[in-house]
Structure formats: structure tokens, C-alpha cells
């Protein structure tokens, strides 16, 4: 199948076997060790024994193309080709010569994570691929290239896609589950997917919703102050609830039904240090 909602089709490439897929066990992650346009160009032509291809190629900014139909074998994992779909991520592994001038490119970008998750979710819908992590060619779900070599199977490169992208597999899976099921991921999974800096930014944003908020430390980004602010906010809500209860009692216990709209600004005093 061609999946234009994932990426525009740029095939066919001579580096593929039409109708060669015998099953769809899951998606295998690769690092391209190259740029987006260069990888598309390389896969589009034969290079003799060095010919390769993948079903999808994803740029660091999230652009994506489909090189090989999902019913056809791409040439990415040797013995695994007829069993797994493959995706090449624009980037450079630490051992690649261009990595020195492209620090951080051994890690998938959030945009690449999103596209990989969409591919996996679509495979779940189209082929019943289970939404789980695969760690060997006998598994199913979200795999990676070197799980072949790590299992003693001839899948080629033992360093692809590298430790950084392997560590991102849970984040890709979590996002795929959300896309496929519509269910939000757990708070633990969400927080684990954030960097320390992103978690800090989240705390600062949450704290900014409550005003005033000058913590004893004088730092407006003091995350440890935030729980104290929440305690003060809860106290205000309890007091408000008590007033509503009193009002209801004065009315004979009969509150109006339907939605209640409250307008105005909620002010919470700084808690005692
Ligand atoms: Zn690879």
C-alpha cells in the first residue's frame, strides 16, 4: 500500500522486490548516516552490492517520503526484509565522520518521533501489528536494525540506529498508542518522555497560572514552591465550597441545576514561609 497521508511516494526504486512481503511483524528503525535528500537520491538508484532502500525516509524537520510500497520488500535488514517495514531517519551516528559537525544528530527529533509513531499506528490498523517493543527478529512491534546482530541473526549493521535512538523507542511507542487508541498516555510516560529542561518549563508554566506566586526563595521558577501554592489554592476552593453549601442551605437545599459560570480572577495569597 501507498500511504500518502504519511509521505508522498517517490518510488519505484530498483532496490526492492515487488510483492515480497510475506508478513508484517513491525517497524524497524534505522539511522540514515546521511541527509534527507541524499538518502532519497541514494535509494532511488542501483549501486550494485551496496544497493539499499527503506519503505520510508524521514527528515529531521518531519518531512517524509515513501520509497517502497508496503507490500514490497525494501532492502534494509537482509534476512528481515520480507517480514518488517523499515524507516530511515535523517541523522548521523556518533561513529559517522559527519557527526563531528552535526552534534546531536544521533538522536531522533520530536518531528521524527511523531512520524515513526504515525507509521506504527497505521501498521497496527492495517496489519494488526501489536503496539509493543520488539527486541529481536522473532518479536513483533517497534524494532531496530541492530536487534538482528544482537540476536545472532544476519541483519547487517550492528551499530544502527545507535543507543540514542534505541532509547527513544518507548517514546515512539507511547505516542503510537495515543494515536491508535485515542487514549492519553499516562502521566508517568509523558513526564519520562520530557527532558529535564522541558519538565522545568512545564513547572514554570503551571506555576504561572496561580498569582501571586513569589516564593520564599525569591525565584519565580522555584518548582518546590509550587505544591505550597496548590495547598493555598485548595484552601480557597474549600472556603468557596463552604459558602456555596451555606447558600444552598439558605435556599432550602435546592441549588439550580445546569452549568454554573463563575467569572472574575482567582487570587491566591502567597503561603506562609
Ligand atoms: Zn540500519
Mean pLDDT: 85
CATH class category of the largest domain: Alpha Beta
The termini sit apart by 63 Å
Spatial strand arrangement across the major sheet: 1-5-4-7-3-8
Name every ligand kind in the structure: zinc ion
Helix count, per DSSP? 8
Shape: elongated
For the record, the CATH architecture of the largest domain stands as 3-Layer(aba) Sandwich
Number of strands: 8
Q: β content, as a range?
A: 5-15%
Q: How many domains make up the coordinates?
A: 2
Secondary structural class: alpha/beta
- Computed Rg: 26 Å
H and E order: EEEHEEEEHEHHHHHH
- How would a crystallographer describe the biggest sheet? 6 strands, mixed
What layout of secondary structure does this protein have?
Layout lengths: L7 E2 L6 E2 L8 E6 L4 H9 L11 E3 L5 E3 L6 E2 L9 E6 L20 H18 L13 E4 L2 H4 L12 H4 L2 H13 L5 H6 L3 H13 L17 H25 L23
Parallel strand pairs: 1-5, 3-7, 3-8, 4-7
Antiparallel strand pairs: 2-6, 4-5
Helix pairs in contact: 2-5
The structure holds zinc ion.
Provide a descriptive summary of the structure in words:
This protein has helices at 36-44, 110-127, 147-150, 163-166, 169-181, 187-192, 196-208, 226-250; strands at 8-9, 16-17, 26-31, 56-58, 64-66, 73-74, 84-89, 141-144. The protein is 34% helix and 10% strand. The protein is built from eight helices and eight strands, in the order E-E-E-H-E-E-E-E-H-E-H-H-H-H-H-H. The longest helix is centred in the last third of the chain and has 25 residues, at 226-250. By secondary structure, the chain is of the alpha/beta class. Helix 2 crosses helix 5. The protein is elongated. It folds into two domains: 8-193, Peptidoglycan recognition protein-like (Lysozyme-like); 194-273. A six-stranded mixed beta sheet has the order 1-5-4-7-3-8, sandwiched between helices. Strands 2-6 form a two-stranded antiparallel sheet. Zinc ion binds next to loops.
Amino acid at each position: 500500500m501507498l500511504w500518502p497521508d504519511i509521505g508522498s511516494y517517490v518510488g519505484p526504486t530498483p532496490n526492492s522486490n515487488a510483492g515480497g512481503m510475506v508478513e508484517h511483524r513491525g517497524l524497524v528503525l534505522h539511522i540514515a548516516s546521511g541527509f534527507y535528500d541524499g538518502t532519497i537520491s541514494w535509494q532511488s538508484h542501483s549501486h550494485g552490492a551496496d544497493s539499499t532502500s527503506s519503505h520510508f525516509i524521514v527528515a529531521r524537520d518531519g518531512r517524509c517520503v515513501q520509497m517502497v510500497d508496503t507490500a514490497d520488500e525494501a532492502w534494509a535488514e537482509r534476512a528481515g526484509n520480507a517480514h518488517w517495514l523499515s524507516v530511515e531517519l535523517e541523522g548521523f551516528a556518533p561513529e559517522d565522520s559527519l557527526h563531528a559537525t552535526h552534534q546531536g544528530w544521533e538522536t531522533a527529533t520530536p518531528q521524527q518521533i511523531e512520524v515513526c509513531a504515525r507509521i506504527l499506528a497505521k501498521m497496527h490498523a492495517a496489519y494488526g501489528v501489536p503496539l509493543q517493543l520488539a527486541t529481536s527478529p522473532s518479536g513483533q512491534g517497534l524494532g531496530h536494525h541492530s536487534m538482528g546482530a544482537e540476536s545472532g541473526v544476519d541483519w547487517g549493521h550492528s551499530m544502527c540506529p545507535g543507543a540514542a535512538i534505541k532509547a527513544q523507542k518507548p517514546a515512539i511507542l507511547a505516542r503510537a498508542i495515543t494515536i491508535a487508541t485515542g487514549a492519553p498516555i499516562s502521566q508517568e510516560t509523558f513526564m519520562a518522555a520530557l527532558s529535564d529542561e522541558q519538565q522545568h518549563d512545564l513547572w514554570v508554566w503551571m506555576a504561572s497560572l496561580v498569582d501571586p506566586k513569589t516564593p520564599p526563595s525569591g525565584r519565580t521558577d522555584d518548582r518546590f514552591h509550587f505544591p505550597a501554592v496548590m495547598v493555598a489554592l485548595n484552601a480557597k476552593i474549600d472556603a468557596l465550597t463552604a459558602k456555596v453549601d451555606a447558600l444552598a442551605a439558605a435556599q432550602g437545599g435546592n441549588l439550580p441545576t445546569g452549568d454554573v459560570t463563575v467569572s472574575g480572577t482567582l487570587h491566591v495569597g502567597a503561603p506562609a514561609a
